[in-house]
Design brief:
The protein is of the alpha/beta class. A six-stranded parallel β-sheet has the order 4-3-2-1-5-6, sandwiched between helices. β2, α4 and β3 form a beta-alpha-beta unit. The longest helix is centred in the last third of the chain and has 21 residues. It starts with a helix and ends with a helix.
Length: about 325
């Protein structure tokens, strides 16, 4: 991205400046700001045996997304991850630098938190460092589990199957709300193990977004769950990591969680997941975001951050113009 002090000279001489990833102020002002949801998380490194990308590329991608999308006056929506050196911090650090460079009072990043995460004082203190670039949004506790919680003001550790079920319901509630409030969803990375919901978080957010017919960008070349998802869609054959058997064998006490969730009809239905993923049309995904099928397949496979950004910016411009017309 180019910043104000870098374009002042060009503006003085009435010169229009652009790059493959950045357009002039005049073009940017035509954009109708979108609410863009980010489903990005890291994954366990395996010494490059299966994942052929370093996690630093996923970090660079998240920073690049923040820089370019915020510059184009879009609102970013993210869910959780308040760890030091986590993706929320990468995005908010970039937004802070951008705010100063663009000399504006505020940029727009919403971070959605599920209960009981927002009961932790350290999370709220963490927000204080970024109060000019982030709006914290606390999701409601689902009605069906309220009676199971003794004190909603206290943190509930996910240390037993019953507590893990409560966490799974709260995470689903947060994801459904944040996706409802998104115009677009972008997916990259994602882990298959050691998650706290009823299924891997990036997978659940993808299924919700797909069901809600949200425009979706799948960036599969940066590894993780999204890469496996792209392979499954392209080959119309479900990767083993998306099966219940694999999840049970790789996640401690997952079978117990599924049993409790099934009793309430809130479990992860892996037969339905298989049916959905194996019948997704790449052409339909591409048309929703204004790309050709060939371009969308490239988005699903490219290991290059700049190429992925170029395709996302093209698609977001199409969606912004389409929204304005409608």
């Amino acid at each position: 991205a180019l910043y104000k002090e870098e374009t002042e000279g060009a503006d003085y001489f009435n010169i229009t400046v652009s790059t493959p990833l950045w357009s002039s102020d005049e073009n940017r002002k035509k954009n109708n700001g979108l609410r863009i949801g980010l489903s990005i998380s890291d994954y366990q490194q395996d010494g490059y045996e299966k994942q052929h990308q370093h996690l630093d590329e996923l970090k660079r991608f998240s920073q690049s997304l923040a820089r370019h999308l915020l510059t184009n006056q879009h609102t970013l929506i993210y869910g959780g991850d308040l760890r030091d050196d986590g993706f929320t911090q990468f995005i908010l650090d970039e937004a802070t630098v951008l705010r100063d460079r663009l000399q504006v009072n505020q940029l727009f990043v919403e971070n959605h938190l599920a209960w009981p995460l927002y009961t932790q004082k350290e999370n709220m203190k963490w927000y204080a460092n970024y109060n000019t670039v982030v709006k914290p949004v606390s999701a409601n506790i689902p009605d069906d589990i309220k009676d199971s919680i003794n004190n909603t003001e206290l943190f509930l550790p996910p240390n037993c199957p019953d507590n893990k079920y409560i966490w799974s319901r709260c995470l689903t509630e947060m994801r459904e709300k944040s996706i409802e409030l998104s115009d677009i969803r972008i997916f990259a990375g994602g882990k298959f193990e050691k998650y706290l919901g009823k299924m891997p978080g990036v997978l659940e957010e993808f299924l919700i977004a797909f069901n809600e017919q949200k425009p979706i960008f799948l960036v599969g070349g940066l590894g993780g769950l999204t890469q496996k998802l792209c392979h499954s869609i392209k080959n119309k054959t479900l990767a083993e990591e998306f099966t219940e058997e694999w999840q049970i064998s790789h996640n401690e006490a997952y079978q117990d969680l599924q049993k409790i969730a099934l009793e309430h009809s809130k479990h992860a239905d892996y037969e339905k997941i298989k049916s959905v993923i194996e019948h997704i049309s790449i052409n339909d995904l591409a048309q929703q975001v204004g790309l050709t099928s060939e371009e969308y397949e490239r988005l699903m496979t490219t290991p290059f951050v700049d190429e992925a950004m170029h395709l996302i910016l093209r698609g977001s411009k199409f969606l912004s113009e389409h929204q304005e017309k409608s």
